[in-house]
Amino acid sequence: MWAVLGGTFTLRFSTGLTGAMLGVYLAKLPEHGGQFVHASTLALLGSAFFISELLLSPVFGVLSDRLGHHRVMLFGPMFGAVAVILTGLTTNLGLLGGTRLLEGASTAASVPSILGYIAVATAGDELLRGKAAARFEGATLAGIGVGFAVAPLLFAALGPTAFFLNALIYGLSFLIYRFGVEDRDADARAAAHAAQSGEISRPIDWTRYRTVLRSPHIWLLAPTWIAVNASIGLWFSQSIFQFSRIDPRFPEQTLHHGFHPGQISLAAVVIGVVFGAGLLYWGNRFKSLRRTTIILYGIGGGALLAVGGLLINHGGGLPLVVPLGGALLAAFGLFLLAGATPAALGLLADISERFPADRGAIMGLYSVFLAVGQIIGALIGGVVADMRGIDGLLIATIGLLLVALGPLALLRRQEHYVGGPASTAVFGGPELEIPE
């Protein structure tokens, strides 16, 4: 598990590094011989990543059940390395869109196989599953956060050459997965092959996957998780791009005055620390709180975060207590919001207990729901940022979180079918130590 979490961190570091450097690269693309890039164009490029993840996650999820979770883990770093090398070689927007598709394929291969592996390892232990889900999200978001923090400084120092350096970090992820993670599927594959010769080489039976998808339990989580991810996707697609430039259309918005790469990096570190603390706290509350309760707190926290952002964005001419209060409110909201991700992941892992032979396929839906939300958020973010800048992003965040409340009420009424102590106790499973 140490290797799984370590490889997840380095892999997501590479993903965050590429995405953030691409935001800076595109904001200054004319300086490198390219054309001027609008926020809506950035949104389309961001959506290409998640479209690829959306379409390919189910495929790689099924493949990980068939070929082994450990084997399919190795595909992600290879796709990512090729993508970043190509990114550093071009300023053509069409080709850059192609590299985003390839990066999306990297995530599509990695997430279902890793989550399938973790679901097997944590079967039957409620507290263990909470810790594993929180630590996976922590490794994921810490990696992305550190990538975001390092990206402006690294790109300022090396320019497009920094993309080639990132290819080496993808190579490190490959080595961690290859030599550090135990292949827990090897015996099962050997037994299946001995029992039925040629099993691995036979075509995949996609009707089995359709049967899994028809389970109503899977779709209980989807609307809320999509809406929450859309609110987060607004910022992943636009934040670095918007904070890196001065927008003269919005002189009254403090956050649109343009920030130095060092300032952006420092802010990213603070955000990562607060969010990481929230992940650890809420991940240890799986036994005492319902999953949907933690998600509800997260949605409320996201709204507080947006309100705090509005106070900061319009506190330039007001007493210092106003923006300072906004910053504290935003930090508290971010801490609450952190709980939503491991809680949703825990629910999906609980659902996978009903389909033990299809864990990769089930956990691949995590990426599907995330990708749909990120695509929606990226597209909305491009429109509202062009219209109202940072204010538009903050207001749209509140709107999307309000949308998430409706389906959450339905999910809460049905939660006892898929999550919580009662359902997990029925499933049973082995114990495994998770690093604190």
Describe the structure.
There is one protein chain. The protein has 436 residues and is mainly alpha-helical. It has a single domain (2-182, 216-427), classed as Growth Hormone, Chain: A, CATH 1.20.1250. Helices cover 77% and strands 0% of the residues. The chain contains 16 helices and no strands. The protein has helices spanning 2-27, 39-67, 69-73, 75-87, 93-121, 126-158, 161-180, 186-195, 206-213, 222-243, 261-283, 291-313, 321-337, 340-352, 359-414, 420-427. α4 (75-87) runs antiparallel to α5. The relative contact order is 0.17. Mean pLDDT is 80; it is low at 192-201 and 420-436.
Please outline the helices and strands.
Layout: H1 2-27, H2 39-67, H3 69-73, H4 75-87, H5 93-121, H6 126-158, H7 161-180, H8 186-195, H9 206-213, H10 222-243, H11 261-283, H12 291-313, H13 321-337, H14 340-352, H15 359-414, H16 420-427
Helix pairs in contact: 1-4, 1-6, 1-7, 1-10, 2-5, 2-10, 2-15, 4-5, 4-7, 5-15, 6-11, 6-14, 10-15, 11-13, 12-13, 12-14, 12-15, 14-15
Say what oligomer this is. Answer: single chain
Share of residues in strands: under 5%
Return the average pLDDT rounded to an integer: 80
CATH architecture: Up-down Bundle
Q: Count helical runs.
A: 16
Just give the CATH class: Mainly Alpha
Written as H for each helix and E for each strand, in order along the chain, the element string is HHHHHHHHHHHHHHHH
Distance between the termini: 11 Å
Shape: globular
CATH superfamily: MFS general substrate transporter like domains
How many independent structural domains?
A: 1
Rg value:
21 Å
Helix content: over 70%
